[in-house]
Amino acid sequence: MKIVLASNNRGKLAELQAMFAPLGVELVSQGELFEGEAPEPHCTFVENALSKARFAAERTGLPAIADDAGMCVDHFGGLPGVDTAYYCTQFGYEKSDANNVRALLEQLQGVENRRAAMVSTLVGVRSARDPEPLIAVGRVQALIAAEPRGGNGFGFDPVLYLPELGQTFAEMAPALKHAHSHRGRATQQMLALVRERWMQA
Length: 201
Description:
single chain, alpha/beta, Maf protein, 7-stranded mixed beta sheet, 5 helices, 31% helix, globular
């Protein structure tokens, strides 16, 4: 079975390909099949992921899976949410992981409540007009560390601290991170849904 991944992020593709391999599913990046990206005008992860999945399915005629993810900080009322990747730009920084981390630490200076959740929402559709999309949500509650720690991972990994493990995501080995990350949790749910709904004889 071939499924298009509605993303051009190579890291995300490699991560998801490895997780989907046991199903015998071939996951192909949309960039290999067509040009352009879906509009993401919505304020929730699930709506944006659905928009991306339908867009990719419409252009390829294949089932599609899309991911929308971000960080929800308690002190900011759940923001930056769907705008996580561009968080630092509102403070005059150029878009980059390092600047996102810098801006977040600056905005939380002196703030006691450092709770934040990383959320990954995966949506799968069999076709562009699928009335019953598969939806999987992975959520990890963490604390924002006072300073970056660790050299692994990407995004906000260096400041996302899991008290129960005593490490940031950037300090974890890849296998440990996949077992505890928001994307890892969402992917395990999606694998079960695909197996149950799309692969039964």
